[in-house]
């Protein structure tokens, strides 16, 4: 009788315990028995880009994401519970880690906090990014020989919100990243750097930053977004390309490899879903491979939208990228719930949801879940080459495309239907 009571008590408490454990950190009542990192552990890392508030557990102005300390703690809990890899949303970009010229021009504090967060949580740590046209201060491209009369040029970096999700900084597109303002003068007041000068700066930056985190940061985005979007040119016009020439890419990889021969060195770009851009990528990488440049992985940002790519389209993207024979990392994954292309920041999600009031799952949630499921099915199909899948942000509240509600957790850190759909892809349970 006594045993029966114990068994009865167990029968009642066990399911409660299981529910409590399933939602232990997020505080959710998710029915899902698993987490992203567990669900995909035999396939690839599932990672997340973290901002400075998460890395430092403080509500810092620099990240401009407007989270109070309770929300930040909740964000941290989700990161720890769900992910086994991290990428820094901003703090390792040149403008943040190396804002000024000279020996004391580095600001390592936030980057150190990021790396320490990864180490203390036993995560696979990515460094992003060493050489990019965006979020790079103008002094990098400025010559040291000022023309007569300009002895003391004014500071050239736009007010450094060190950050940040401020629109200019977080989009990181086009000329806004420090060399903009018309025909490539940016905030420069004097002559451009020479090729030798810029190569020297690139070398010092890479040696210092890669050297500092050697053995801790396992993967580096060495060059970000060097490809041209339209036209027939392979490379975009950027100060790197204009001043050094097209071999700036090879040099950056060589410098990084010299400093940390064990690090996986990635070339990272966006819109590889677009066949023309993808073919440019393939041409570029084949040429680097032919020259013996140590490019070791392809980073496909994969900032996509609910309208495309489909499973079949992503399957084709990955099949073609695989011809390069390198691991593929999905580096900045998010799925904009708004219609429109990858650049679109506006959302029509509210409108979508309004049309389905009273339904069990809003149309917008269902579309997002279907899109995520299709893309994760493609990643799984190619899991011999896809080694890392990184979500670009932990939840919709901190996303650079917040209006498009593009992530797996909502702004309150609750899992969305898309989260359950992604777990079901891993467990093979497509029936629900
Ligand atoms: C690019 C960069 C990222 C980030 C996004 C926008 O994709 O690689 O670091 O700045 O733009 O958030």
Q: How would you characterize this protein structure?
A:
With 432 residues, the protein is an alpha/beta fold. It has 15 helices and nine strands. Helix 11 links the parallel strand 5 and strand 6. The N terminus is likely disordered. The protein binds alpha-D-galactopyranose. Alpha-D-galactopyranose binds next to helix 7.
Brief write-up:
With 432 residues, this protein is of the alpha/beta class. It contains 15 helices and 9 strands.
Overall, the morphology is: globular
Rg from Cα: 23 Å
Q: Report the strand count.
A: 9
Q: In sequence order, what are the helices and strands, one letter per element? A: HHEHHEHHEHHEHHEHEEHEHHEH
The first-to-last residue Cα distance is 40 Å
Secondary structure: elements and pairs:
Blueprint: H1 2-22, H2 36-39, E1 45-50, H3 52-56, H4 69-82, E2 85-88, H5 94-97, H6 109-120, E3 124-131, H7 167-171, H8 195-212, E4 217-224, H9 239-243, H10 248-259, E5 264-269, H11 275-290, E6 297-300, E7 303-305, H12 311-322, E8 328-336, H13 349-355, H14 363-381, E9 386-391, H15 417-427
Parallel strand pairs: 1-2, 1-9, 2-3, 3-4, 4-5, 5-6, 6-8, 7-8, 8-9
Helix pairs in contact: 8-10, 12-14, 14-15
Alpha-D-galactopyranose (GLA) binds at residues 128, 170-172, 224, 270, 301, 332, 400.
Keywords:
single chain, alpha/beta, eight-stranded parallel barrel, 9 strands, 38% helix, globular, binds alpha-D-galactopyranose
């Amino acid at each position: 009788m006594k045993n029966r009571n114990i068994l009865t008590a167990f029968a009642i408490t066990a399911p409660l315990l299981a529910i409590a454990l399933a939602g232990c950190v997020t505080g959710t009542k998710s029915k899902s028995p698993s987490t992203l990192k567990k669900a995909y552990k035999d396939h690839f890392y599932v990672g997340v880009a973290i901002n400075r508030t998460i890395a430092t557990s403080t509500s810092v102005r620099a990240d401009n994401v407007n989270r109070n300390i309770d929300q930040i703690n909740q964000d941290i809990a989700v990161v720890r519970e769900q992910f086994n890899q991290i990428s820094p949303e901003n703090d390792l970009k040149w403008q943040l880690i190396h804002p000024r010229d000279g020996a004391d021009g580095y600001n390592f504090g936030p980057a150190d906090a990021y790396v320490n967060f990864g180490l203390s949580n036993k995560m696979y740590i990515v460094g992003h990014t060493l050489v990019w046209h965006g979020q790079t201060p103008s002094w990098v491209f400025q010559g040291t020989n000022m023309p007569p009369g300009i002895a003391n040029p004014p500071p050239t970096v736009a007010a450094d919100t060190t950050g940040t999700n401020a629109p200019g900084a977080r989009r990181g597109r086009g000329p806004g990243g420090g060399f903009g303002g018309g025909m490539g003068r940016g905030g420069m007041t004097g002559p451009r750097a020479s090729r030798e000068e810029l190569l020297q700066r690139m070398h010092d930056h890479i040696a210092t930053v890669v050297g500092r985190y050697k053995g801790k940061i396992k993967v580096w985005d060495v060059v970000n977004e060097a490809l041209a979007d339209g036209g027939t040119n392979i490379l975009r016009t950027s100060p790197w390309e204009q001043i050094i020439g097209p071999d700036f890419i090879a040099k950056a990889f060589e410098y990084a490899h010299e400093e940390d021969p064990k690090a996986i060195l990635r070339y990272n770009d966006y819109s590889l879903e677009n066949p023309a851009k993808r073919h440019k990528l393939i041409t570029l990488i084949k040429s680097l491979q032919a020259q013996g440049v140590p490019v070791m992985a392809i980073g496909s940002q994969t900032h996509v939208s609910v309208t495309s790519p489909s499973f079949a389209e992503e399957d084709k993207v990955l099949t073609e990228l695989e011809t390069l024979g390198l691991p593929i990392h999905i580096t900045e994954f998010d799925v904009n719930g708004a219609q429109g292309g990858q650049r679109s920041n506006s959302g029509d999600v509210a409108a979508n949801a309004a049309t389905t009031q009273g339904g069990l799952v809003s149309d917008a949630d269902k579309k997002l879940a279907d899109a995520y499921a299709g893309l994760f099915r493609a990643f799984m199909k190619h899991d011999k080459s896809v080694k890392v899948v990184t979500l670009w942000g932990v939840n919709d509240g901190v996303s650079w495309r917040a209006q498009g509600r593009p992530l797996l957790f909502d702004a309150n850190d609750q899992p969305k239907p898309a989260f359950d759909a992604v777990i079901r892809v891993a467990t093979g349970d497509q029936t629900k």
